[in-house]
Amino acid sequence: MATPLINGRAYDYAQIEVNILGVPVAGISAISYTEEQEKVNNFGAGSNPVSRGHGAKNASGSVTISMNDVEAIRDAALGGSLLAIPSFDISVTFLNAQKVVTHVLKNVEFLNDGVEATQGDTNLERAFDVVLSHIVWR
Description:
This protein has one helix at residues 67-74; strands spanning 16-20, 23-24, 28-43, 49-66, 88-94, 101-110, 125-132, 134-136. The two termini are 38 Å apart. The mean pLDDT is 93. The chain is mostly beta strands. The protein is extended, with a radius of gyration of 20 Å.
């Protein structure tokens, strides 16, 4: 007896649509983003914590983009440098038929710029680190 797909279709990379500067970018082969927040126990009388303190949040990420799309993004930059592009949002939409989910990376800026090419490459692409203010998860 075959087991049914209890959880339906999994989220996968083929479902992702990424928009940078309001334009869908097909040449993104990887995207990564995270938020971190310091959380510490506060102590008083006794050996157990009496409360917990929360520090500031920090968000960061990276995108791996093909040279074709990098050059299209450069058109929006003063002098063609990714570092000169003012803050922008990146939306990442997971087009899963069961539940479409969109994450928005807010106030993104590139932290580096450059090109990587090696003999034999058939698709030039490069990973770029980005800084962002926060992530809207839904």
